[in-house]
Amino acid sequence: MEYRPNLDWMLTDLAKSVPGIQMIVVLSADGLRIARQGGDPDAGDRVAAACAGLQSLAGALADEIVSSDGEMRMILIEVNGGYFYLMAAGPNAYLAVLSDIRCEPGMMSSRMRDLVARLGPHLTSPPRRNGKVV
């Protein structure tokens, strides 16, 4: 089994600095949870898997924008009672946040960008083939 350092502690500052955050997940492009803050591990795994599909769809839509390079940078979804944020966080890695309605979207996206800028090199996932790092 490959050693992966515990990155959960990196998310604590974000969770404490923005009201309304319920869960933060760092995931690989193929939908595997790398780190989590809040919620339970099974929920984190479900969020990571769903995010992989969302980032793929966003990339496909970005390809239709003439001036776009096709790379997804951020997704914001508002639902009754809260928000879902997904941001590119490093090579093959993404940062996802689920929050209630107290979380102001402008503040959240700014804090996520700050976290990615500070910790981007740590929020990466090497490509895998047949379950092994290549």
From TrEMBL:
Pfam families xref list: Robl_LC7 (PF03259)
Location of the Roadblock/LAMTOR2 domain: 8-99
PANTHER family xref list: SERINE PROTEASE INHIBITOR RV3364C
Chain ranges passing through the membrane: none
Domain of life: Bacteria
Protein name, per record: Roadblock/LC7 domain-containing protein
Species per Swiss-Prot/TrEMBL record: Streptomyces flavalbus
InterPro entries on file: Mycobact_SerProt_Inhib_Rv3364c, Roadblock/LAMTOR2_dom
